[in-house]
Design goal:
The chain is an alpha+beta fold. It contains 15 helices and eight strands.
Length: about 350
């Protein structure tokens, strides 16, 4: 069995009310999110508007600013447990009425833009185990580890809600080195947690994903799924053209593709790309710089790559060229972001 999410998720937008669990947690920690929302051109009232749609760049810029301001690295784990199935609306109903946990995950993965995730998800079986894994679908900058942590806990919360009890896990694997909040990982998942792993996933017995859910009703699941299809299509269609370009940049080696190469891949002209990007108040060069900046932050905070290796991955000729660019972006040296 192999179930995976569609690859269009990275080009979609999200409904703003999905930020509510995050902003409520910020408030509990004593941080007022409203000034940060406004700084990132998000009206606070958007969180109460079920139709207000955010572009990925605005959503992630807000989250990264808030994470820097609050400086609590474990926030992703704590926030993930707030994404209960009931919070997903129609998608939650579709998943909850599926015949078993495997089908519930299939529903979630199929309509991923409705989940506020920036991950590619998969469920596969191997050696008697069911493995739920995730990997980033776009550059996430300073939100990278937050999104990994939140995603793992949110998916485990979905499984718990669907089954009516917390499933027993065999182990959890996390690609980052062991963080200061490692014990919280163990407390939440109640199983061995392996850091510096090759993947981000959690594993349970294969038989557990075939167990019927507490509210299984396959006919209802079919009706709910039809509604999800319509909602999801709207979210994907509302994705900005700049996100399309960003996705193509991330698929090409070293993020050094020329505008002409991207135009060829999209079967259009460089002039058309520049015009459409200008309509979104950006440019091709700005997107290249933004992607490089975000990936640099991810590499520095979550890997042991040397400055030379990071420079090569980002398309720079050497480490000094990369360091100069990083100082231009942030006003500081890349070494200041090393956390280990």
């Amino acid at each position: 069995m192999f179930i995976h999410s569609d690859k269009h998720g990275g080009k979609s937008s999200h409904r703003a009310y999905g930020l509510a669990p995050f902003t409520s947690l910020l408030k509990e920690e004593g941080l007022n999110p409203e000034p940060i929302l406004q700084k990132n051109s998000i009206p606070p009232s958007a969180l109460e508007d079920p139709e207000y749609i955010l572009t990925p760049s605005r959503e992630l810029a807000f989250m990264e600013s808030a994470l820097v301001a609050i400086d609590k690295p474990e926030l992703g784990l704590r926030c993930g447990s707030r994404y209960h199935l009931s919070f997903y609306g129609m998608l939650g109903l579709a998943a909850m009425s599926s015949k078993n946990l495997a089908e519930a995950f299939r529903m979630i993965f199929k309509y991923l833009p409705m989940t506020w995730s920036y991950m590619y998800w998969s469920l596969h079986t191997e050696g008697g185990l069911a493995i739920v894994s995730l990997e980033p679908q776009r550059d996430l900058g300073g939100c990278y580890q937050y999104m990994i942590d939140r995603g793992l806990v949110a998916s485990y919360t979905i499984a718990t809600d669907a089954l009516g009890y917390a499933p027993s896990l065999v182990e959890v694997n996390v690609a980052q080195s062991e963080p200061s909040y490692a014990q919280l990982y163990r407390d939440i998942f109640n199983c061995p947690v392996n850091f510096s792993a090759q993947s981000n996933d959690f594993r349970m017995k294969e038989a557990d994903v075939q167990l019927p859910l507490q509210q299984t009703e396959t006919e209802s699941a079919r009706i709910f799924a039809k509604q999800c299809e319509q909602i999801c299509a709207k979210l994907v269609d509302s994705g900005s053209f700049s996100e399309v370009i960003r996705q193509h940049l991330l698929r090409l080696p070293n993020q050094v593709a020329s505008l002409e190469q991207i135009a060829h891949r999209l079967n259009t002209t460089p002039r058309t790309i520049q015009r459409r990007l200008a309509n979104e108040n950006t440019s091709y060069l700005e997107l290249v710089e933004d992607v490089r900046h975000n990936l640099a932050v991810e590499y520095l905070e979550t890997t042991l790559l040397t400055m030379e290796e990071i420079a090569v991955r980002l398309g720079y000729s050497d480490a000094p060229s990369f360091s100069h660019a990083f100082k231009r972006w942030t006003g500081t040296s890349p070494g200041s972001l090393r956390v280990f």
